[in-house]
Specification:
A hairpin with a 4-residue loop joins β2 and β3. The chain is α+β, with helices and mostly antiparallel strands. It has a three-stranded antiparallel β-sheet with strand order 1-3-2. The protein folds into two domains: about 70 residues, Winged helix-like DNA-binding domain superfamily/Winged helix DNA-binding domain (Arc Repressor Mutant, subunit A, Orthogonal Bundle), CATH 1.10.10.10; about 60 residues, Orthogonal Bundle (Arc Repressor Mutant, subunit A), CATH 1.10.10. The protein starts with a helix and ends in a 6-residue tail after the last strand. It is about 50% helix and about 15% strand.
């Protein structure tokens, strides 16, 4: 197999993956397909040039979609960990950082990072009482 055939095969693999996972971001494609970032960057650029896929930024990530989804309403996507955190807050409104840390098994710093993003995007409201922070879900993740 020559280099051109290998490149076409890789683009087909990436395109197929994006069709099965619309809205996936670059880092997740890297992890799941186990290819280098330079190689993925090159093939993503070729797929966008060829009008096979398009990209759109949400608040934080650049997400990739098949061209067939260009006129669809695209909800903001959340990572599985973000969905888990919001589920915890939905089930236990008024949870503190440490409540969430204990329930999802992440570090306090990781929870702080996600909460900061949620507050910025309006997904979560924070109430501070006597130095403690309490979190409440303001809206669902796919609005």
């Amino acid at each position: 197999m020559n280099r051109l055939d290998i490149a076409k095969q890789m683009r087909r693999k990436i395109l197929s993956f994006i069709k099965k996972n619309p809205g996936i971001h670059f880092s997740e494609i890297l992890r799941r397909l186990k290819i280098t970032s330079g190689r993925l960057t090159y093939h993503i650029a070729k797929l966008e040039e060829g009008k096979k896929i398009f990209s759109k930024y949400d608040d934080y990530w650049k997400r990739f979609y098949p061209i067939s989804a260009i006129n669809d309403h695209i909800p903001k996507s959340l990572t599985p960990k973000q969905k888990e955190i919001l589920d915890i807050l939905n089930k236990s409104p008024g949870s503190t950082y440490m409540d969430v840390v204990k329930k999802c098994g992440k570090t306090r710093q990781a929870i702080f990072y996600h909460m900061k993003k949620f507050i910025k995007t309006g997904h979560v409201r924070i109430d501070q009482v006597k130095g403690k922070h309490y979190f409440y879900v303001e809206k669902t993740g796919d609005e």
